């Protein structure tokens, strides 16, 4: 009933055309606020403000504090008092506004910080904020026919904070006041308010007709910088006029200067920045579109105008403007900005894919200098794994069957494929680009191979164990250089609530650089599906045939610039190896190994052989074979991980033939061959012992290498024997089952027993 009554009053306010309404007392409002503060407002606002405070603390620390951590955050049980002297609606231009007194004087808040104190002090201390007083006047502005309200302080509010100091545990400071901390906290809060919600900076509170109860955790937005109008050096902030002494008429001289103006716009969203091309004249036309990523349900897109000085690498800042945006719980998006004469520009996009065009005045400059932009929200992503795009909502399994589809960190695997990149930058003076990508998810690091183009293609797949708690996939892109690799951008992707059976294919723009995007494909796989795909589709009736063909472009492990590479193969508990190829970076083995197909991971470790010293690792990889169809050979080059370059060429087949059709590795019986190998190993041991007694170190290398190869060959034949035994037993079971099925009397006797 209260909600319905308030909605009726709100409609009357919006529809009212009177320039000013009668003074209204606010006792009812403060009473209502008191009733809902403890159970609703306090926990919701505490959670929201906690994230804001944590971000601000990272960037703004006192000189006496080396590191600060937020331990506790609660706004207490006492809400602020609103409109103690009453309030009324008035009109400013064509905008309805309300001026509302705000007085929050509370002594039961609980905000606790743990500070590591900088020199000359040592140790830690707890900083407890136990009282807060904020007093000022709020300005409320309804926009979009009452669908939302913009709010801000008319001027910087009065702020007072009381701080207590306590023990921080072992090796902590005594509970005495640290000089300057109280004033630092006051300044921190005041600056935060000034930059975010003091006129004309405004926050938005939406009033949707429908609440879908979806938590947006990120989005993709396309920003187009269209054009600017009436630019001139003399009126733009940050750039004094450059008119040279001339006998020309002033007006003509100014016109010449503005015509000669060369400008570009830098678009900023969080740590992501992009630049338009440079265009000449006082009314430049850019029409540049950028793919931007938002990591929250709100964001601010800033536009910075620069002038490029001809014949120089110097850029001069001219002016700025910004647009704020917010996801609304009815699946729409609100955009708002500062209009002419500190007014309001607001737009509403009812669904993803709808274009919004805005003409923004540059802040702090003469009227008429404007920037035209276009924004399109391509997608909103939600914490339950669903996402909205192009007027459609793709639901997660939670929306389909009513149960949560999000599993714990041990319940799913995340497959991430780095597909390709485009428009990557280079820091090489010769214009070369040798990019590679590092992925970090939790504590796990993965790396692609190095490419050699500005638009590289990797198509490399990596696997991670899913981590709960909203862990981001961190992406860093580098270019390989002779004297150290250079960073050419980074990004992060929220993997919260991924839906099984659906591959997310996205272009991710790189942050902290002016250009560059990576195409990433992400898929969540349940542990049951994963294990099922790993295991044999033909249990107990097949084997894996692996042919190690060759490798190329390996790294040099020796001082002479070469390597002596061989491959160590791990398959479950089994280990095999190839022969050593001496003094080459492009070895050819052409060796065939076989393993019983039990679904174990097939890992390859490329090593550099050393006779006396420990072997060096020159790359690793995993051979994916689990989803191969039977008796179909997969021929592929696999990039090596953990090194800057190198690939290995393998052929892998899941063999599932009839027992009598299985070819043997060798026409000789396996046992006879194994005895021959044992005899050869004894001879090599005699040679080795002789070389050691003669102190012939060069003669030690070859017998050692041959011994290792013979040992691996012996193990290989033992595996063949095990495989043949397994296949024979399976065939006996099949024949026994056929006999039972073909004889009814035997079948009945078997079931009776």
From TrEMBL:
<feature type="domain" description="C2">
    <location>
        <begin position="514"/>
        <end position="638"/>
    </location>
</feature>
<feature type="domain" description="C2">
    <location>
        <begin position="394"/>
        <end position="508"/>
    </location>
</feature>
<keyword id="KW-0445">Lipid transport</keyword>
<dbReference type="GO" id="GO:0016020">
    <property type="term" value="C:membrane"/>
</dbReference>
<dbReference type="InterPro" id="IPR000008">
    <property type="entry name" value="C2_dom"/>
</dbReference>
<keyword id="KW-0175">Coiled coil</keyword>
<protein>
    <submittedName>
        <fullName>Synaptotagmin-5 isoform X3</fullName>
    </submittedName>
</protein>
<keyword id="KW-0446">Lipid-binding</keyword>
<keyword id="KW-0813">Transport</keyword>
<feature type="coiled-coil region">
    <location>
        <begin position="704"/>
        <end position="738"/>
    </location>
</feature>
<dbReference type="Pfam" id="PF00168">
    <property type="entry name" value="C2"/>
</dbReference>
<keyword id="KW-0472">Membrane</keyword>
<dbReference type="InterPro" id="IPR031468">
    <property type="entry name" value="SMP_LBD"/>
</dbReference>
<feature type="domain" description="C2">
    <location>
        <begin position="202"/>
        <end position="338"/>
    </location>
</feature>
<dbReference type="InterPro" id="IPR035892">
    <property type="entry name" value="C2_domain_sf"/>
</dbReference>
<dbReference type="GO" id="GO:0008289">
    <property type="term" value="F:lipid binding"/>
</dbReference>
<feature type="domain" description="SMP-LTD">
    <location>
        <begin position="22"/>
        <end position="208"/>
    </location>
</feature>
<dbReference type="GO" id="GO:0006869">
    <property type="term" value="P:lipid transport"/>
</dbReference>
């Amino acid at each position: 009933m209260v909600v319905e009554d308030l909605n009726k009053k709100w409609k009357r306010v919006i529809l009212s055309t009177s320039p000013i309404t009668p003074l209204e007392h606010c006792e009812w409002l403060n009473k209502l606020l008191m009733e809902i503060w403890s159970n609703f407002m306090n926990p919701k606002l505490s959670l929201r403000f906690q994230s804001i405070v944590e971000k601000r603390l990272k960037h703004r620390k006192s000189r006496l504090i080396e590191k600060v951590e937020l331990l506790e955050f609660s706004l207490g049980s006492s809400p602020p008092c609103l409109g103690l002297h009453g309030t009324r609606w008035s009109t400013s231009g064509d905008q309805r506004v309300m001026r509302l007194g705000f007085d929050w004087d509370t002594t039961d808040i609980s905000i606790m910080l743990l500070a590591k104190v900088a020199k000359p002090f040592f140790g830690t201390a707890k900083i407890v904020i136990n009282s807060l007083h904020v007093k000022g006047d709020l300005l409320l502005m309804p926009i979009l026919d009452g669908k939302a309200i913009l709010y801000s302080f008319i001027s910087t509010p009065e702020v007072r904070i009381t701080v207590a100091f306590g023990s921080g545990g072992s090796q902590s400071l005594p509970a005495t006041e640290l000089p300057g901390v109280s004033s630092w906290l006051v300044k921190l809060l005041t600056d935060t308010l000034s930059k975010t919600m003091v006129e004309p900076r405004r926050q938005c509170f939406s009033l949707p007709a429908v609440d879908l109860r979806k938590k947006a955790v990120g989005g993709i937005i396309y920003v187009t910088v269209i054009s600017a109008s009436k630019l001139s050096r003399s009126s733009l902030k940050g750039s004094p006029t450059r008119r040279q002494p001339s006998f020309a008429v002033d007006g003509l001289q100014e016109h010449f200067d503005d015509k000669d103006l060369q400008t570009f716009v830098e678009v900023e969203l969080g740590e992501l920045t992009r630049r338009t091309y440079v265009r000449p004249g006082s009314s430049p036309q850019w029409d540049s579109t950028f793919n931007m990523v938002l990591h929250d349900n709100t964001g601010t897109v800033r536009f910075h105008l620069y002038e490029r000085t001809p014949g120089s690498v110097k850029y001069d800042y001219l002016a700025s403007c910004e647009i704020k945006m917010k996801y609304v719980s009815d699946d729409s998006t609100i955009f708002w900005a500062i209009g002419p004469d500190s007014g309001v520009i607001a737009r509403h996009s009812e669904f993803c894919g709808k274009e919004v065009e805005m003409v923004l005045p540059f802040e702090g400059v003469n009227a008429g200098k404007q920037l035209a932009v276009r924004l399109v929200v391509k997608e909103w992503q939600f914490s339950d794994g669903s996402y909205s795009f192009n007027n459609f909502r793709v639901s997660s399994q939670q929306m389909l069957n009513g149960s949560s589809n999000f599993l714990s960190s041990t319940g799913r695997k995340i497959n991430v494929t780095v597909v390709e990149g485009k428009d990557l930058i280079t820091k090489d003076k010769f214009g070369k680009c040798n990019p590679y990508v590092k992925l970090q998810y939790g504590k796990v690091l993965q790396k692609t191979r190095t490419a050699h183009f500005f638009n590289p293609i990797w198509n490399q797949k990596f696997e991670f164990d899913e981590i709960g708690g909203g862990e981001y996939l961190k992406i860093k892109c580098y270019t390989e250089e002779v004297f150290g690799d250079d960073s050419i951008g980074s990004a992060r992707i929220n993997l919260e609530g991924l839906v099984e059976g659906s591959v997310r294919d996205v272009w991710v723009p790189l942050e902290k650089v002016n250009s560059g995007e990576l195409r990433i494909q992400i898929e969540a796989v349940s542990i049951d599906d994963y294990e099922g795909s790993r295991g044999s589709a033909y249990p107990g009736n097949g084997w894996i045939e692996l042919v190690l063909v060759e490798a190329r472009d390996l790294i040099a492990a020796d001082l002479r610039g070469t390597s002596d590479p061989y491959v160590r193969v791990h398959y479950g508990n089994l280990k095999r190896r190839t022969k050593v190829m001496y003094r080459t970076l492009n070895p050819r083995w052409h060796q065939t190994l076989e393993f019983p197909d039990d679904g174990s991971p097939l890992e390859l470790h490329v090593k550099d052989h050393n006779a006396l010293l420990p072997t060096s690792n020159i790359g690793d990889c995993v051979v994916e074979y689990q989803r191969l169809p039977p008796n179909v050979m997969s021929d592929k080059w696999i990039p090596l991980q953990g090194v800057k370059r190198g690939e290995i060429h393998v052929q892998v087949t899941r063999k599932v033939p009839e027992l009598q059709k299985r070819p043997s590795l060798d026409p000789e019986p396996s046992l006879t061959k194994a005895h021959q190998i044992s005899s050869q190993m004894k001879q090599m041991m005699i040679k080795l012992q002789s070389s050691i007694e003669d102190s012939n170190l060069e003669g030690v290398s070859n017998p050692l290498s041959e011994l290792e190869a013979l040992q691996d060959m012996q193990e290989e034949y033992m595996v063949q024997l095990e495989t043949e035994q397994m296949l024979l037993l399976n065939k006996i079971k099949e024949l026994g089952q056929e006999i039972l099925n073909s004889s009814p009397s035997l079948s009945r006797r078997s079931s009776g027993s």
